[in-house]
Amino acid sequence: MRRSLVQRMLAGVAAVLAVAAGGGVLRGALPASDAASPPARGVASPRPPEPFSLADVQSRKVPRGSSLIAVPKARSIRAYRRPRARRTRRLRPRVIEGQRVPMRFMVVAQRKGWVRVQLPSRPNRSTAWLRRRDVVLTTTPYRLVIDRKRHRLSVINRNRLTLRVPIAVGSSLTPTPRGRYYVTDLIRSRDPFYGPYALGLSAHSPVLTSYAGGNGQLGIHGTNQPWSIGKDVSHGCIRVRNRFVRRLARAVPIGTPVVIR
User: Fold this and answer.
1) Catalytic residue among 151, 204, 221, 235
2) Is 221 a catalytic residue?
3) Residue 204 annotated among the catalytic residues of the structure
């Protein structure tokens, strides 16, 4: 992490974290249906949601290997510490480069009338309950797996390895935190340091509580320093080469799980 996604925006800098991948072994192609390019600048538009009802989930109609994403129906949504709790808080989308970042939440549990989601805020892996009637459930077939020791990123599509590429991770002083997170936003970068696109994560640095005016949000981003790949050199972000960044940006939707181990 040179500058976090939110930090860069708050500092008024146009470029942000970018996700990229490169230099690895491609094992199968990403779907042809993902070939449409995101907008030329700013916040990239997520693909249209594929709705699933609670009955679909309970009847196991959701494809095997897919993960659930909760998409708020309104511009803001009320979050509960537990179902039917009296005290609530209102979640609203962030604004980057004058554009609202679409809210998406990774579903981690559910019960009748409620879904529990991970939040893109501190502390890491914090959660809240949302009313089922306030969201549309969608799915993603993708999962990103970050192996810090082996310095590699794997893209899993419905339990099948699609892509594996080398990466750089955080240094011993600013480590990349372990855990299960998700992609919170997709940005097109104009700074060569981060590559052409950005995938912000719900993860935050465990040691940098503030950085360049932001809150230490991490991401997976490309780099114009390919010599750093394979090393522990970043401020916590995951660096990858830019070769496959466009394919990843087109294929991996907001809400996709990211497992860092």
Assistant:
1) 221
2) yes
3) no
The one catalytic residue in 151, 204, 235, 237 is 237
Q: Which amino acid is at 26?
A: L
Q: What is the CA radius of gyration of the chain?
A: 17
Task: Specify the pTM.
Answer: 0.78
The secondary structure of residue 120, as a DSSP letter, is: S
Tallying the residues shown for the chain, one arrives at 261
Q: What are the residue ranges in the chain where pLDDT is below 70?
A: 1-61, 96-97, 211-214
Q: Contact 245/220 with Cβ under 8 angstroms?
A: no
Give the CA-trace dihedral at 78, 47, 167, 1, to 10 degrees: -40
Find out whether the peptide bond into 123 is cis, omega within 30 degrees of 0.
Answer: yes
From CA 261, how far away is CA 259, in angstroms rounded?
6
In order of their start, the domains of the chain are 5-43+141-260 (2.40.440.10), 54-140 (2.30.30)
- Taking the C-alpha atoms of residue 216 and residue 236, their distance in angstroms, rounded to an integer, is 9
Helix (H, G, I), strand (E, B), or coil: what is residue 8?
helix
